[in-house]
From TrEMBL:
Transmembrane parts of this sequence: 9-30, 154-177
Species classification: Bacteria, Pseudomonadati, Pseudomonadota, Alphaproteobacteria, Rhodobacterales
Keywords, comma-separated and alphabetical: ATP-binding, Coiled coil, Kinase, Membrane, Nucleotide-binding, Phosphoprotein, Transferase, Transmembrane, Transmembrane helix, Two-component regulatory system
Record-annotated Histidine kinase domain positions: 248-458
Coiled-coil parts of chain: 212-242
Name of the featured protein: histidine kinase
SUPFAM superfamilies: ATPase domain of HSP90 chaperone/DNA topoisomerase II/histidine kinase, Homodimeric domain of signal transducing histidine kinase
GO molecular function, one term: ATP binding
Pfam families per record: HATPase_c
E.C. numbers: 2.7.13.3
Enzyme class, broadest EC rank: transferase
Reaction equations catalysed: ATP + protein L-histidine = ADP + protein N-phospho-L-histidine
Native source organism of the sequence: Allosediminivita pacifica
Amino acid sequence: MFNSLSGRFLVLTMVFVMLAEILIFVPSVARFREDYLLARLERAQIASLALLADDMIAPELEEELLANAGVYNVVLRRDEARELVLSSPLPQDIAATYDLREAGPPILIRDALARLIDPEPRIVRVIGSPLRDAGLLIEVTMETAPMRAAMIDYGLRILILSAVISIITALLLFLAVRRLLVKPIKGVIAHMMAYTQAPEDAHRIMQPSASVRELREAEEALQEMEQQLTQALKQKERLAQLGGAMARVSHDLRNILTSAQLFTDRIEMSEDPTVKRLAPKLVGSITRAISLCEGTLAFGRAEEPAPRLTLFNFAELANDVLSAERLAIGEDDVSLAEDIPASLMVRGDPEQLYRSLANLVRNARQAITGSGEPGEISIAAREGEREWIIEVSDTGPGLPPKAKEHLFQPFQGGARKGGTGLGLAIVSEIVRGHGGTVTLVDKEGCGTCFEIRLPMGDVA
């Protein structure tokens, strides 16, 4: 029980209530002592007035008056005359004098604590003001033992009452905490356990219902987290299915391309000038396709293998990409341009970077073609101080807001109807594998502009 939130809250409540009662206990006992002494002064004053009314009073009656007042002697000062009104023998000398006329709360608390600590019975003198201005002052001598006993009895009753109040208060708070906090928290825990059994089930997502603001905020945060997790699991499942499908397709496609590669060997032997010019490009394209299929089969999933870094001429790579894209343009009004130094050498994996550029150029061509307007696609590259900077830009309509929100995310970053959004995800993964970055930048006069930065590393 004490390891639970409600159990610890119960114990802390009892401790704090008892602490508050103890802080109240000390001034309460001090006030009780003051009232006790004032009561003795009042009784002594009544007894002295009875004696003043009749000077001839028997010693037995005087002793009875002193016993009722609980004092030994009574001194009354009236008209500047100090008069011993009632008296009896003192069993011991007077130990201390207390003047209640000038005593403030700190002095009363100090004297009360001193009396509780000291168990020895003593004789003390108490001075106070008479009631209803019946004189200048009244002074009595009395024993401390009965007063200390009364103070202890009063203190015990206060402590017992405090304990009862603290227990009742703690129980009420315990029940309130269990109702308002512990029960809703247990409900959230039960929901989380149920959600973990089938996180892909959207029906198990938390529906906030708490009326307490803090708990509702926690439930809303949990709901958002579960929605994102469920979506991520579904996306992961789709990617896994896509990976399996790609592996099967790549297996069959590799066999087909291998056969096509055998035919290209025969084509290269042709004497036709056009065939001789196009044959190397055809062979290169088929070789890249076979390499891609083998890489997919080797890993059996959609992740890119580690790049094989080599120094290569980037202008030649970009020219191959644009040449392949010219064949796909056909009769569309799309022009291609490049701004790359002929001697620019880049360190990277040529096959993977070819795929990255091809995806970006293909996306740009499809965007321009879909708009129905003419446009231009350009590849530019330059060498910086510590990195190579590559830009692929177009004059098309640009990316829609939804595509910008989920840029580089598979199945979500598609810019055209029917697109999967895998192209940009592949580009991002390849560039990250090279230690670089790819970002969408704003450039005047461009519809879309992607900037790739590849670190030079030890090449510099």
